[in-house]
Design a protein that fits this description.
Elements: H1 3-16, H2 24-37, H3 53-56, H4 72-78, E1 86-91, E2 94-95, E3 108-111, H5 112-116, H6 122-128, H7 138-146, E4 149-155, E5 165-171, E6 178-180, E7 182-188, E8 193-202, E9 208-218, E10 223-230, E11 236-246, E12 251-258, E13 263-272, E14 278-287, E15 292-301, E16 307-316, E17 321-330, E18 338-347, E19 353-362, E20 368-376, H8 380-387, H9 393-406, H10 415-428
């Protein structure tokens, strides 16, 4: 049975499991849009270099088993100097408070499923839910039709969440391939601040397909940072759509660090809805074997005096494949825009490939916009310089690659996260380096 047929056959049963149904009509409508659109193929321009056939040819369970035997030791291995963090653990879609550490005060935190079923939050969902998500995409419509699990946080005016929040999505004890549609909604009101880390982990040998949608709303003078730490196993597929809408004088960062997963597709859209906005997008990708990681970004400069900064670094080994497609749109009224976009890549093996396409569409005349991309190998002169000082070839290569990727970590304010990324870099480069 095709995945399309599985989706249609399971939807009625899925709706029957919901206790509150104010979204039912929109779910049915979204399913209809998905059916009309169908899964993207390589004939679609946006998926020209990313073949998802492997994902959609498998059979999936749409109703994951809730039982699990996640141990504290397994969770501890996923933490990285997080003693002063809060963390929220979802296992097989369900929030597990006994595995979580939640000390959030003066803010509304709920599991997405609970918020959906809470009449008191109906107005919030009417105002925010699905309002900035692109309505013409197959995966976003599929997510709306099936979303149930995930994270909801509203940070009130002038509240600063001091501790970073790490959201874990874990899948374990599944005997069949499993399909998750996770949904995150973050609202950061005037003058508020919050930092979130998101990671997905499959503990089984069966395949997990996660179709995730995140909406971020950052109000005037607020700051929101969302870090995606992607280091899952080789039986994991992830399609992620993140939409961030900013009001005047706000700062929003989305960092994406991709190290694991068989096929990973990251879609990131920033919508600037006021003046003096700063938007930051950084990415580091290090993959090997036959992994594929695809980054698609878009920044919509709709108001004057705003800045955006995109810096993506890729290192590709074996037969891995990278894709980068970055777009910057500058409206005719968005004068004094400053937009920077750069994608640099290193190929370490003859079988590794990268398709990169930075794009600018500018309709204003008083702007500073630049874009560029590079694809190459390590600098032989720099390698020779290090080798001449007694450093082994492998360590010299690792040092150069670490330096190459390092500037994409510069705006991480969470020191343990920066150390974790550095550690993953050295692990993926298969060398021990002390920094």
């Amino acid at each position: 049975m095709s995945l399309n047929e599985q989706i249609l056959n399971n939807h009625s049963e899925f709706l029957s499991t919901l206790r509150h149904r104010f979204l039912d009509e929109t779910r049915v409508e979204a399913l209809g849009k998905f059916v009309k659109l169908g899964f993207p193929t390589k004939k679609d321009e946006e998926y020209k270099y990313t073949n998802i056939k492997e994902i959609i040819e498998k059979d999936y369970n749409f109703f994951p088993k809730e039982s699990h035997n996640i141990t504290k030791e397994q969770l501890d291995e996923l933490h990285f100097g997080e003693e002063n963090f809060d963390w929220i653990v979802f296992v097989n879609g369900q929030l597990h408070k006994e595995l979580s550490k939640i000390s959030i005060e003066n803010a509304e935190f709920l599991s997405f499923n609970y918020a959906l079923n809470d009449e008191n939050h109906k107005d919030v969902f009417d105002k925010y839910f699905n309002t900035i998500v692109a309505k013409d995409l197959a995966f976003t419509n599929l997510n709306q039709a099936y979303c149930k699990y995930g994270f909801f946080l509203k940070v009130p005016k002038n509240v600063v969440i001091e501790k970073p929040i790490h959201i874990f999505y874990l899948s374990q004890n599944q005997e069949e391939n499993t399909f998750y549609n996770t949904r995150n909604l973050l609202i950061v009101e005037d003058g508020a601040k919050v930092e979130v880390i998101e990671s997905h982990h499959n503990f089984d040998e069966t395949y997990v397909f996660t179709n995730s949608v995140t909406e971020i709303f950052t109000y005037p003078n607020a700051k929101a940072d969302w870090h995606k730490l992607q280091n899952d196993n080789d039986t994991s597929y992830l399609v992620d759509h993140t939409f961030a809408k900013q009001e005047r004088d706000s700062l929003t960062t989305v960092n994406t660090f991709s190290f694991g997963g068989k096929i990973v597709r990251n879609n990131l859209d920033f919508i600037q809805n006021g003046s003096n906005i700063n938007s930051f997008m950084n990415g580091i990708t290090i993959i090997g074997k036959d992994q594929l990681v695809d980054h698609h970004t878009a920044v919509h400069h709709n108001q004057p005096n705003c800045e955006s900064y995109q810096n993506y670094k890729g290192i590709f080994k074996d037969k891995s494949h990278g894709v980068f497609n970055g777009k910057v749109f500058v409206d005719k009224i968005a004068q004094k825009t400053n937009a920077y976009q750069q994608n640099n890549n290193v190929l370490l093996s003859e079988g590794a490939t990268i398709d990169t396409k930075p794009q600018l569409e500018i309709f204003a005349d008083d702007v500073k916009c630049s874009h560029g991309c590079t694809v190459g190998q390590l600098n032989e002169d720099a390698l020779f310089y290090l080798r001449a000082r007694g450093i082994s070839k492998k360590e010299a290569q690792a040092l150069l690659l670490f330096a190459f990727a390092n500037d994409a970590m510069q705006n991480i304010d969470i020191e343990p996260l920066k150390e974790k990324i550095s550690k993953l870099l050295t692990e993926k480069l298969e060398v021990n380096i002390e920094f």
